[in-house]
Every structure is written in C-alpha cells, then in structure tokens.
Design a protein that fits this description.
Distance between the termini: 45 Å
Number of helices: 25
Structural class: mainly alpha
Strand order of the largest sheet: 1-8
Length: 642
C-alpha cells in the first residue's frame, strides 16, 4: 500500500533541476532544489527540507534576463534579430512576432511547460506548511512569512497564465488522488473571477509576515517583500481594468462548457479606481522601503571628466542596469543579465572578439522615432524642431559631441532628442561612454561605427545588427574590451521598477477621474529624472497640440507613450499594447531599419523593410490552447479564432 501511495505521489510531483548561477550568495536560496524525497511527509518533516520545497516554488519564476525566455521581449515589435540566426538563436518568442503561433504546438506554451506544475507545487507547500503539526521546528513568524511568499507565487503564476490565455481554470487546491473523471476535467472561469481570486491571494500574502525590507540582504535578496506584492497587485488590477479585459465586446460570445460567459462586455469604470488605489498603495510601500530614483552623482567618480549630459544618461541607465539599484522593486538574482548584455553590445573597437559582443539585438526605426525631442514632445508635434526630413543626413557639431561624435555624419533622426533616446539606443556615430581608461573624459571616448567594414558593421555572419540601432540600455557601463573578449558587470533583471508603478498610478487615475494635478505629478517625476520639463509645460511651450494633456483621451496617449519610452526594452511594451487593444495597430506595421550592409554613408541611411508583421484581431490577443490539451480535457474551450 505504501509503495502504491509513493507511485501516486510521484505522478503529481515534478521537481526542477536548476543549474548553479554562481553570481553571489544572495542567489543561493533559489538555487537549492529538493532531493528526491520519497514522500510528502519527508519533504515537510523538518525546516531544512521544507525550505528546499519553498525554493522550488520560487524556481518556476520566468527567466526574464534571457532574450529568448522573456516572452514580451521578442514577441512584439520592439526588438528584432537577424533572420540568419534562426538556427543559432531559435527564439520561440520571436517566432510569435513573425506570425508563427499555432494550435498544434503553441509557442511559449506555459500551459504545458511549467505554470500548472508550479501552482501544484505551491498548493502542496501551502497544504503542508499551513498545518502546524508539520515542520515542528519552524517558528510561527517564519511559517507566516513562507506561507505569504508562496501565496504570492501562486497568485503570480495564475497571473502569467491569465495574461496569456485570458480566462483560465483556477487551481484553488490540488486535485485529489482519488478524483473522478468529472473532477479532473476542469474548465475556464470568468475573467473577473480569476482576477478576484489572484487579488485575494495577494491580499493574504500582504497580511502575512512577509517583510517590508529583506532583513538578511547577504542571503535573501530577491525574496518576496510587501512592496513586491503591492506592485504586482497593482499590475494585475491595471490589466483587468484595461480595454482587453474591461468591456471587451469582441469576446462577449465566449463561454465555458457550462455556458457561463467568460468576459463581461459591459465597461466598468470602477475597475480603474480599484487599480489606482492599488497603485498608490504600491507607491507608499515602495517609498516606505526606501525605493527611490537612482542617485547618480558624478562627483563620486572623480577620475572621470564627464559633462552633465553624460551624467544624466548614466543615471537613467543605472536606474535599470545597476546591481540592486535603488529603484528596483523586484529583481530576481537567480537570473543575471549577462548574456543579454553580450547580445546587445556592439563591437566598439577592432580588439573586441566577435561573439563576446554579438550586437544582434536591434531596435526597429519605429522605436527610434518613438522617443521625444529634447523639448519633451513627440517628433511629429514639436513646433520648434523640424523632423519632416528625419532620414536626411547631418554632421555633428561641437556642441553635440556628448551625444554624437563631432564631425560624424548620421541621420537627422538622431539629433535633438531627449536623454532617454541616448541612454537607450546606440547608433552609427553615437557616443558610448564606458567605465575604463579610454573613457576618462567623455570628450575622447568610444563611439559606434556601424557601416559595413567598420567595427560594429554587418561584417560577421549571424552576429550583425539588422536595423542600425543597438540596445544600449541593457549594457552596464562597467565593462571592458580586451584581446580576450569583453567582460560585463551582470545585474539581476528588474521585473518592476519605481517608474513602472508611478506610471501605473498615473494611467489608472487618469482613466478613473481624468487629468489632474496628481496625475501630472507622477508623470513629471519621471520626466524630471530624464531632464525634461513637466507635461503641461512641455506641451504648452513646444507642441502643435498644446491642449493635449488637458483631456482624458489626450493624456491617455501621452501616458501610453511615456510607458513605452521609460520602460523600453524591459519586456513591457508587448503586454501593454495587448491590454490596451492597440496591438492590432502596432503589430501590423512594417519592421524597418537602415541598409546596414552598405559601406557608403549615403547608401547606409536608406530605409529598408525587414519584415511585414501581421496581427489578426481578436484571435492573436490570446494564446491558443494546445489541441492535445483539448483532447485530454474536453471541458476546456479553445480561445476565440483558434
């Protein structure tokens, strides 16, 4: 009988095999995995064994520091890679961007590749650790904290599934071993019910002994805190309030097997109020924990001679790519941004070894066009700067030397732009200031040379930049070239930053109540860090549409653009465009870039189309459920259009 029980348990348990990252002690807690325990009782017999199971629940978190694993990073229109790399860089998320999604073998299929198993592990943990007769050497405070952490993880894994598939089943508890066929055949629940269940888990987690600040930073950084819980709650409710889920009539006929409607087609404005309240609570929690914009002070780097312009750019970048930056709310130490830096880094000198600076992650022209002018308004609205002929050529002057190499000829598009443009993008002729002896002065430093037969040109099969725009934001400035290769300072990938929840609050508050001083305040905090004047001042002084911030519709457009600029290359744009129901507009545009295979300047700066994207609405707003899953469980309904 005991052997039969063990066999049954093994059918329901899947344990991860996680490789050691070897970054620092603060990553070790996630790296530990349970031994092959024979029974559940053994797994929760002592604190040490239960802690291993806790870390298994953490180990299912997605690896967003990897370009191929971060779904939103390559699935949309924000980042492109060379077609020639399909064999050496087989990114399934990029195949989605190229229209490859299908029902027989869905791409990035979290339904079948982990999330339900992750939730099952969380349920096993909660069932056992919530029983005070189990794990007798576990203190009551640690018990409460651990339960809160796993409740959060269970909620987050449900959210990942909801974001991809829309209405999903709810795994409130694990299916009993002796369950009948009807109990096993679960069905999707209405979206509002899914959201409320996720939020209830997050509220329970927040009310546990999960700390505001990690008490032992040497060994526990990356574990769940109250600001993380509040920030994710805000994101969940913001998603639920957005047009894809709130009053979406496209899906009003979608029902589950029991005939229940899965989407409420009636718009509910109170969802925005609920999201705004959650975002404000997240801000309060984060700021109480000391979260603030990264305080870059050039006086702390006395060995460098750098301008205010360069210091501004570094401060913006280090807010994202510095280890444990002061503005990180949630960063995962188990997934270090090292490979993604190599994939983004251009070859700045002939000494760099090809392959250690692969430079193949590129931004389409539309992303370069997205950033504001130096006056803080879109390039097509600035009444003082003419970008009509933005693809024509211009030679950099002395006063432009901190952004573009003096005397270098590049496109007009690259001039007169805001600091986040120069912090986020590298381009032919663009300055790339680095922490090494050559960069002691930002007047004699590195710059990108990207035409054919130049160091960063399209000279190497596979490792080329397809558009001419490099992802500078991803590369920490403390890296160096040598004859043996390039060294990088890795950092834990930030899943949520302070500016993210500021933008969540501004968006939800505008949708709930329209423009207000409060909305402007949180937008202007972000703009001030970027060296820009406030929203109202910028539009009234420089825009051809000066009243735009004064209406809900106009301010909505501004907020959406602010999110896409501030959070560029963080894997957010793809999900935002979907929840706003704007993916059909953006993902049906051509992916374009410069003619990077050309050697002559005038030939290089000719626009070329790399790919004609297609997005079919409403089908492509949600993932298909694999046909095999529908065969196994006839109670599931396929998503609309698949």
């Amino acid at each position: 009988m005991k052997n039969l029980q063990i066999k049954k348990i093994k059918r329901y348990l899947i344990y991860l095999s996680v490789s050691t990252i070897g970054f620092s002690a603060c990553a070790d807690y996630i790296d530990v995995v349970p031994d092959n325990v024979a029974t559940i009782d053994n797994a929760f017999s002592l604190r040490n064994e239960a802690e291993k199971f806790l870390f298994t629940c953490y180990a299912w978190l997605p690896n967003n520091a990897d370009a191929q694993s971060n779904t939103g990073f390559l699935a949309g229109d924000e980042v492109w890679i060379p077609v020639a790399q399909r064999e050496i860089y087989p990114a399934n998320n990029w195949r989605i961007a190229r229209g490859g999604q299908n029902v027989n073998a869905p791409l990035v299929d979290t339904w079948r590749s982990g999330m339900w198993t992750a939730i099952r592990d969380c349920n096993i943990f909660l069932e056992n650790v919530s029983n005070t007769s189990k794990v007798p050497d576990l203190s009551s405070e640690d018990r409460s904290r651990w339960i809160g952490e796993v409740m959060f993880l269970k909620a987050y894994y449900h959210y990942i599934l909801m974001r991809q598939y829309g209405p999903i089943p709810l795994a409130r508890t694990n299916t009993p071993l002796d369950a009948n066929q009807q109990e096993v055949r679960v069905t999707q629940r209405p979206v509002d019910e899914v959201v409320n269940y996720i939020v209830s888990l997050l509220d329970s987690a927040s009310n546990s002994a999960v700390p505001l600040i990690i008490p032992d930073q040497a060994s526990e950084l990356g574990r769940v805190t109250k600001p993380i819980i509040q920030a994710v709650k805000a994101e969940v409710l913001l998603t639920a309030a957005s047009p894809l889920f709130n009053g979406n009539s496209d899906f009003q006929a979608v029902r589950n097997k029991d005939g229940e409607p899965l989407f409420n087609p009636v718009y509910d404005a109170s969802k925005w109020t609920r999201a705004a309240e959650a975002a404000k609570a997240a801000i309060t929690a984060a700021e109480s924990a000391g979260t603030t914009f990264f305080p870059f002070r050039k006086t702390e780097y006395g060995q460098f001679k750098m301008s205010d312009e360069t210091a501004q750019i570094l401060g913006i970048n280090l807010g994202f790519n510095e280890r444990w930056s002061s503005e990180h709310i949630w960063a995962n130490p188990n997934y270090q941004a090292w490979n993604i830096q190599r994939d983004a880094m251009p070859l700045l000198t002939i000494d760099a070894v090809v392959g250690t600076a692969r430079q193949h992650l590129s931004a389409p022209i539309k992303i370069a066009e997205m950033f504001y002018t130096k006056n803080g308004v879109p390039i097509n609205e600035d009444k003082t700067l003419d970008f009509t002929n933005r693809f024509t050529l211009r030679t950099a002057k002395n006063e432009e030397r901190f952004h573009i190499k003096e005397g270098y000829t590049t496109a007009r598009l690259n001039y007169d732009r805001e600091s986040r443009f120069y912090a986020s993008l590298g381009f032919d002729g663009g300055i790339w200031f680095k922490f090494d002896t050559k960069s002691l002065s930002d007047e004699d430093t590195y710059y990108v040379q990207a035409k054919l037969n130049q160091p960063a040109g399209a000279n190497n099969h596979g490792w080329i930049n397809e558009t001419g725009y490099f992802l500078k934001k991803l590369v920490n400035w403390e890296q160096a070239f040598a004859s043996s290769g390039v060294s990088y300072k890795s950092y834990p990938w930030p899943t949520i930053r302070l500016s993210d929840i500021y933008l969540m609050y501004a968006e939800a508050l505008n949708e709930a109540n329209g423009p207000s001083t409060e909305v402007y305040t949180y937008l202007d905090r972000i703009r001030e860090r970027a060296g820009l004047a406030g929203i109202v001042e910028s539009w009234s002084s420089f825009s051809t549409n000066p009243s735009k911030p004064n209406t809900k519709d106009g301010l909505r457009e501004i907020i959406q653009r602010e999110r896409m600029i501030e959070l560029v290359f963080e894997g957010k744009r793809y999900w935002d465009l979907r929840r706003w129901k704007l993916a059909v507009n953006y993902f049906n545009q051509n992916i374009t870039g410069w003619s990077v295979n050309q050697e002559v300047t005038s030939d290089y700066y000719r626009l070329r189309t790399l790919y004609a994207q297609t997005f079919v609405a409403p089908r492509d707003y949600f993932w298909p459920i694999a046909q095999g899953e529908l065969t196994v469980n006839p109670s599931l309904m396929q998503n609309l259009g698949w």
